[in-house]
Amino acid sequence: xxxxxxxxxTILIALTGSYGYGLAMPGISDRDYRGVFIATQPK
Length: 43
Description:
By secondary structure, the chain is of the alpha+beta class. It has one domain. It is built from two helices and two strands, in the order H-E-H-E. The chain has a two-stranded antiparallel ribbon.
């Protein structure tokens, strides 16, 4: 699967880590994401 195919099959993206908990520090913290996508059938 390429990036475009994964993006088109994504059903959930969540912001996690310090930004998700509201503890981020400007200029220091990065953004962490988790997600779920629907995979294709194995060939």
